[in-house]
Amino acid sequence: MKKLILFITLSLCSVFSAATAQAKLKVASLHPLITDVARQVAGQHAHVIQLIDPHADPHDFQPTPKSLLKAKGAQLYLASGKNLETYLSKLRNTLGGKAKVIEVGKTISSRKISERDSHYVCCPDHTYGAIDPHWWHCVSNMQKAARVIAKEFATADPANAAAYKTNAANYSERLAILHTWIKREVSRIPRKDRILSTAHAAFGYFCKEYGFRPLPIKGMTAHQKTSASYQAKAIQEIRKHNVKAIFQELRANPKSLEIIAKEAGVKIGGTLVADGAPSYEKMMRENVTIIVSALSQ
Asked: Which terminus of the chain is more exposed, N or C, with fewer CB under 10 A?
């Protein structure tokens, strides 16, 4: 009898656990860094499914039928926004109103490509006025993103609204510490050397927030090919602005940057992560450490 009672108890616990898991808010994420902040906000109350590899380039990502099957039953789909995910209209049509697609960066102030606060090789020649989609490189923007996500989670799951709000606030406090650390580290770089030369125009928000002037070698993506004449122009700009180091980017072909750096007589400062990582805080700390190491010496 005792064994029967124990079996029934365990069975009921299993059923209850399964029902609880199924009752959790299900969320699908279309950007690696959005996945991270969403999980910080979700805590134990929502299940965040990652549809994109944490190290993948969101510029190239397209959701497949297989990945959408993985997200079956999701009530919310989280996207970065600002025209980064060109497939969102198609995705909304595919979902047919069964889930809500949220562009997390939509309410965050946009930065446009212009010559006013940047140096460019190709831009703004052919992208003048375009919106820079890389808003996550500003820590205060990620704090706003946490609040946006918490609000959407609370709307979809009112029973856990307070928990989502608290989780977002706690995460924001950690990001405030990160922001203070970045400012302290950047202060070690002489102002004249605060020119951030990278593969593509991904660090504009970071530069504006922390007092750099960006000089991207390529355009809005790191995959743009560089001709001999283009490389000559890049070398000219690097010399003109006394750039101290050029930074490669993860997943970007390093060959053209290595050629440009050699001809311009500057060093490769290291490899930065521009578009995706499993942990936002770790990505920012590692990027800043590399930048400060190369430009403060």
From this structure: N
3-state secondary structure of 99: coil
Domain boundaries for CATH 3.40.50.1980 within the chain? 18-112+135-178, 187-295
The first and second tokens of residue 257, run together, are 């940057």
User: Is-contact 266 238, C-beta < 8 A?
Assistant: yes
Q: Which residues of the chain have pLDDT under 70?
A: 1-23, 113-129, 218-227
Quickly count: other Cβ atoms within 10 Å of residue 89's Cβ.
Answer: 10
For residue 124, cis peptide bond before it (omega within 30 degrees of 0): yes
pTM, to two decimals: 0.85
* CB of 223 closer than 8 Å to CB of 194: no
Residue 77 to residues 49, 57, 224, 283: CA-CA distances in angstroms?
Answer: 9, 18, 29, 23
Q: Are 228 and 162 in contact (CB under 8 A)?
A: no
Residues 218-265: tens digit of each pLDDT? 654 444 555 677 778 888 889 998 999 999 998 777 788 888 899 999
CATH architecture of 18-112+135-178: 3-Layer(aba) Sandwich (3.40)
Assess contact for 246 and 272: CB atoms under 8 A. no
Q: How many CB atoms lie within 10 A of CB 62?
A: 12
d(CA 100, CA 67): 17
Query: Residue 57 carries which side chain, given as an amino acid letter?
Result: D
Give the burial class of 162: count Cβ atoms within 10 A of its Cβ; 0-12 exposed, 13-18 middle, 19 or more buried: exposed
Q: What is the pLDDT of residues 175-196, one digit of tens each?
A: 999 999 999 999 999 999 999 9
d(CA 121, CA 5): 75
Stated as kind and residue range, the H or E segment containing 77 is strand 76-79
CATH class of domain segment(s) 187-295: alpha beta
Look up residue 18 and give its amino acid.
A
**pLDDT attached to residue 163:** 98
